[in-house]
């Protein structure tokens, strides 16, 4: 029995039952059953029909609903796996293949300058692979399924604070950007950029303190994020990133997302700023 047939039967069975009962009562049972008794017997008969027939139909309806939900969950899981496979192929698999080619070339390269350049490119590719992995995992976490919608998700502010706690340098976080201002992809990319900047503070800045400030734009629907530290800053022009592959990846990521990217040394502080355009 189909879902539509069950719904129509639930609607019509009580109506048809009452109609047949009233016809039989008035045509054949009126000499034996008084009007008051017949009026009392009508809801009893409807209740009896509901308990016997409608209750079974409701169980059938619930079973069909459960089967539909199970099929929907399987479909969502398959779509998520397909998306993950696509991202693994497009990003990670190709990058790993590129790494293997570059490593093979290093074995036969005697030019030190070219050797250093290849090592730099390998490090950069490794960072890209790490980025693809994080993005693929995050995309699965943000998949909207009936099950995951009921679970509590961490806000971006909480995730930023977790990133700040991953390093030994004290990082002060001031965050007022509503999650609704960013898409899931923007959250992933922004969090990855913040993590990159925080790691750089610990590894290269020799700083005693850092700050992360995220706030919505004043006159337009946008936002701005500033990562700042009191470290040694840049020994050269900050616009020439050179072999700072972490900052290069941040710059490329900002370009892909159509964000503004700025890095500077100001009054003894190094400032990295990201903002949507």
Automatic annotation (TrEMBL):
EC number in record: 2.7.13.3
Residues making up the signal peptide according to the UniProt record: none
UniProt keywords, alphabetically: ATP-binding, Kinase, Membrane, Nucleotide-binding, Phosphoprotein, Transferase, Transmembrane, Transmembrane helix, Two-component regulatory system
Catalytic activity: ATP + protein L-histidine = ADP + protein N-phospho-L-histidine
Transmembrane segments: 7-24, 40-58
Domain Signal transduction histidine kinase subgroup 3 dimerisation and phosphoacceptor, chain residue ranges per copy: 81-141
Source organism, top-level taxon: Bacteria
Keyword Nucleotide-binding: yes
PANTHER family, per the entry: NITRATE/NITRITE SENSOR PROTEIN NARX-RELATED (PTHR24421), NITRATE_NITRITE SENSOR PROTEIN NARQ (PTHR24421:SF10)
Record's protein name: histidine kinase
Organism of this sequence: Paenibacillus woosongensis
Taxonomy of the source species: Bacteria, Bacillati, Bacillota, Bacilli, Bacillales
């Amino acid at each position: 029995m189909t879902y539509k047939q069950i719904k129509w039967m639930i609607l019509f069975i009580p109506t048809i039952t009452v109609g047949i009962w009233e016809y039989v009562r008035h045509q054949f049972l009126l000499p034996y059953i008084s009007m008051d008794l017949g009026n009392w017997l009508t809801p009893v008969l409807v209740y009896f029909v509901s308990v016997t027939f409608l209750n079974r139909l409701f169980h059938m309806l619930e079973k069909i609903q459960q089967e539909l939900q199970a099929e929907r969950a399987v479909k969502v899981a398959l779509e998520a796996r397909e998306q993950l496979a696509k991202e693994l192929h497009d990003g990670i698999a190709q990058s790993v293949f590129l790494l293997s080619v570059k490593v093979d070339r290093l074995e036969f390269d005697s030019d030190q300058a070219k050797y250093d350049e290849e090592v730099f490119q390998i490090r950069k590719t490794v960072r890209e692979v790490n980025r693809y992995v994080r993005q693929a995992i995050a995309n699965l976490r943000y998949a909207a399924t009936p099950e995951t919608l009921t679970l509590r998700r961490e806000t971006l502010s909480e995730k930023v604070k977790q990133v700040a706690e991953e390093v030994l340098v004290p990082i002060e976080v001031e965050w007022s950007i509503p999650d609704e201002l960013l898409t899931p992809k923007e959250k992933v990319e922004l969090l990855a950029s913040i993590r990159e900047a925080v790691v750089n503070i610990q590894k290269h800045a020799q700083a005693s303190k850092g700050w992360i400030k995220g706030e919505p734009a004043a006159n337009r629907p946008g936002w701005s994020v500033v990562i700042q530290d009191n470290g040694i800053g840049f020994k050269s022009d900050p616009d020439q990133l050179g072999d700072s592959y972490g900052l290069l990846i941040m710059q490329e990521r900002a370009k892909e997302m159509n964000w503004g990217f700025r890095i500077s040394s100001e009054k003894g502080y190094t400032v990295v700023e990201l903002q949507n355009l």
